[in-house]
Write a structure and sequence with these properties.
InterPro entries: BchE-like (IPR051198), Cobalamin-bd (IPR006158), DUF4070 (IPR025274), Elp3/MiaA/NifB-like_rSAM (IPR006638), HpnP-like (IPR034530), Methyltransferase_Class_B (IPR034466), rSAM (IPR007197), rSAM_horseshoe (IPR023404). Its cofactor is [4Fe-4S] cluster. The structure is a single chain. Strand 13, helix 13 and strand 14 form a beta-alpha-beta unit. It is built from 19 helices and 14 strands. The termini are far apart. The chain folds into 3 domains: 140 residues, 3-Layer(aba) Sandwich (Rossmann fold); 255 residues, Alpha-Beta Horseshoe (pyruvate-formate lyase- activating enzyme), CATH 3.80.30.20; 69 residues. 43% of the residues lie in helices and 14% in strands. It has 492 residues and is α/β, with parallel strands linked by helices.
Length: 492
């Protein structure tokens, strides 16, 4: 059996970094970890190929080769996934799908032969058994939460590492918190299931043996959701990294209580974490209480961000406007808040009601849900009737984005970040890093209207904190991408 695994295209979003990938001679930011893991679960007698359409287009020759086409997608990839399904069916192929987009919006996909929904470790074996017997059903679903040590290692051989900025692995699923707008609990459960340290180190060793030496994104919903287990794992991870001269620079997502645990911060720094994304959301206490983000209510975010960055980890933050408790003053508050705490990579979006979340159910009961969910919360798209009014919310949001990613405010945040950041992460300087710096000197230092801010920052970094120069150059390059995203949002 010839199985073609196809990963749909991401649109040009905040996290796609499409406009700056040429600086590092890459084609995509991250690989399709889900499909790489699915590949390891398929029968050993099957021939398997992978097409990541973020790297190369799906060709007719790919479809001609295949007997089966397997597609996995996030909500933001729905348009591309629909096109892939249509093309595969026109070519007469059996189409099998799974993943968040199909879990949430199955009705948007016609022509699919088999939906395999839920965590693959529990549902895929039943489908494969029936498929081999010729009695496969149209839909397979499971809400069972598997032991993650049953998850096979990704098939890295399907990738060309040179195409990607970072690799991805997963340590845990689920989150102990239950924010009203978040779909993690619906997808992966309340609480945090983890892989054993032994399993995780074997997985990282496989990536190491495959030849990868660079950034690794631990794609957990909340890496520190199970603090007891993560504190058992981190010293072993640090030892593994040290023995191999720190081949991986790590980044992940975590809750803000990370900042209150100095032991955990030290452990993550020792293990070579250099970035962490935190859902900060809003400076409004009323809005935090409204959405159930209790862990953020009493937090001094200025101190929290400084504490994390002093341990060598750049804080990337998620922010939201559009809560029912928000008033028209929230836009100015958000700008001032983000500038004051110095989060450079500040993803600010309009609140959206994701399917199966508590927010979605509440708004549905109130008759406030609308069509139009894109899955991309920085595209000024609304799928509900906001309390403050649609026009006020969207115009205020556009104003926030235009200010935050103006050269003056963006470079001010980099300077603020630099004042508290300790460049502690270890790792090699790659040829692509040097190329990126050289390209930035022309693209930003000469051509861009940000050139004055760029050179001022470069010289300041060289004089005061030269070890932070690679991070500062990266942030300057990312500024070009964020500026383009901001222009697109404002033009909507």
């Amino acid at each position: 059996m010839k199985a073609l695994l196809v990963y749909p295209t991401y649109p040009d979003t905040f996290w796609s970094f499409k406009s700056v990938l040429p600086f590092v001679s890459k084609k995509a930011a991250f690989p399709p970890l889900g499909l790489l893991t699915i590949a390891a679960m398929l029968p050993k007698t099957w021939e398997i190929r992978l097409v990541d359409t973020n790297v190369a287009p799906l060709g007719d020759v790919d479809l001609e080769w295949a007997e089966l086409v397997l597609v996995s997608a996030m909500l933001v990839q729905v348009p591309s996934a629909q096109d892939i399904v249509r093309r595969a069916k026109r070519a007469g192929k059996i189409v099998i799908v799974g993943g968040p987009a199909f879990n949430a919006q199955r009705e948007r996909f016609s022509g699919v032969d088999h939906f395999v929904l839920g965590e693959a470790e529990t549902v895929l074996p039943d489908f494969l058994k029936d498929f081999e017997l010729g009695v496969a059903k149209a839909v397979y679903e499971s809400t069972e939460r598997p032991d993650l040590d049953s998850t096979p290692f990704p098939v890295w051989e399907l990738l060309n590492f040179k195409d990607y900025v970072s690799m991805s692995v997963q340590y845990s699923r689920g989150c102990p918190f239950d924010c009203e707008f978040c779909d993690i609990v619906a997808m992966n459960g309340r609480g945090s299931r983890v892989k054993s340290p032994e399993h995780m180190l074997q997985e990282l060793q496989g990536l190491y043996d495959a030849g990868w030496r660079d950034s690794v994104f631990i794609v957990d919903d909340n890496f520190i959701g199970n603090i007891v287990n993560v504190k058992d794992f981190l010293p072993k991870l640090a030892g593994w990294q040290k023995q191999r001269n720190y081949p991986f620079k790590l980044m992940t997502e975590a809750s803000v209580n990370l900042a209150q645990d100095s032991e955990l911060l030290r452990m993550m720094s020792d293990a070579n974490f250099h970035k962490v994304f935190i859902g900060i959301e809003t400076p409004s206490v009323e809005s935090l209480k409204e959405c159930g983000k209790k862990q953020n209510v009493a937090t001094d975010f200025g101190s929290a961000v400084r504490e994390i960055q002093q341990h060598g980890m750049q804080v990337m933050g998620g922010f939201i406007v559009g809560f029912d408790s928000d008033t028209s003053t929230i836009f100015e508050q958000q700008v001032r808040f983000i500038q004051d705490i110095g989060v450079v990579t500040a993803m600010i979006g309009v609140l959206n009601a994701l399917p199966r979340t508590r927010l979605w159910r509440r708004l549905k009961s109130e008759g406030r849900l609308l069509d139009g969910l894109s899955g991309e919360n920085t595209d000024a798209c609304l799928n509900f009737i906001p309390a403050m009014g649609r026009e006020v919310l969207l115009e205020g949001y556009k104003e926030v984005v235009s200010i935050l990613y103006s050269s003056k405010e963006y470079y001010a945040r980099i300077s603020k970040f630099l004042s508290s950041y300790a460049p502690l992460s270890r790792g090699r300087l790659f040829r692509t890093d040097i190329q990126a710096f050289m390209k930035s000197m022309w693209a930003i230092g000469v051509v861009s209207h940000s050139r004055f801010f760029y050179w001022k920052l470069i010289f300041k970094t060289l004089l005061t904190k030269p070890k932070a120069l690679p991070v500062v150059v990266e942030l300057a390059i990312l500024g070009l991408h964020f500026e383009r995203v901001a222009r697109r949002i404002v033009a909507v």
